[in-house]
Amino acid sequence: MLAQQSSIQHHQSYVQRQVPTMRVQLLTGLAELVQELTELPVSALSSALNFPLESIATTEGFLPMSQISALLDECARLTGVDHLGALLARRQGPQVLGMMFLAGRNAHFLQEAIAAMVKQSAWLGHGWQCQMLQQADVALLVLPTLPKQLQLWLACHWAWVFRQLSAGRIRPNRLFVTHSSSAQASQLRQLLEVPVQYQADFNGFLCSEEQMQLALRQGDRQLFELVQHYLELTGQQPRQSRLEQIRGIMREQLVIQQQCNLTTLANALHQSPRTVQYYLQHQGLSFQQLLDETREQQAVRLLKDSELSISRIAEQLGFADISVFSRRFRVWTGQSPRQYRQHHRACR
Fold first, then answer.
1. With pLDDT > 70 as the criterion, what percentage of the chain qualifies?
2. Are residues 139 and 210 located together in one domain of the fold?
């Protein structure tokens, strides 16, 4: 149960400390949805949830992602709707994504629109960065690993972004999610209108290269470029540092290829291994240090927010042996992977 709050405040300090956060206004419509499903007045729901639902629509700023996740979990429990996050997203429509959706509108091609939205995904809060990967004749939109209801919320929004931008002509071929299926899986499938593969190694959408090259009917090149220029001038277009770019590529290669080494990293950056090594040294880092940090962050997130087995998590992070992963994880956290997962679930 959430702690009692009289109002929601702007928690800029959470962003500064790099704690995962979410923009409060992205919960617009939650009070009405839960009221409709439970037939209880909003005041009674706010009391039961210890959260001021009535103030969501008028509040600016961010809250910790863990707090919003706990709120959605409690709403799902009260309503009996296992896919509440997806249902909320469907009710909201992609316009609630604000600057993120604005960034992709008026592009000439679907791939261009999705890439522009991916760049602006930090508008949602810290910890929401998505990534677009091209492999042979397919494209992967990789979503961050989030708690279940937030994962469903984000996935549903992206599914309907594809539909709306393409005027209903494009649906992704498949959605991959790390959590397991439920008794309400068919209802979720109807909401998304995309086949879902559960207990996957990553969260994201699979599309064909042909789909991504779709020309958008409403595209206005001049307006699209004007919006991108405006977002950059006003500081709302996030500029990724070189180190952040390297971390992102490491995460991508671990998710997709289950391995990452200096050569593959350098190839992705279109630089020589020596140049990358030289840059990292000037940042006070080595390649192995950065890889260990990335593995630790991914391991903690997957153990907390996914239902992947520990052996599959070890494999995804490039460990050939689960015992090696367990020893390394104990060095990182002082606990075994199993102890860490059990402790986290007991604290929920």
1. 88
2. yes
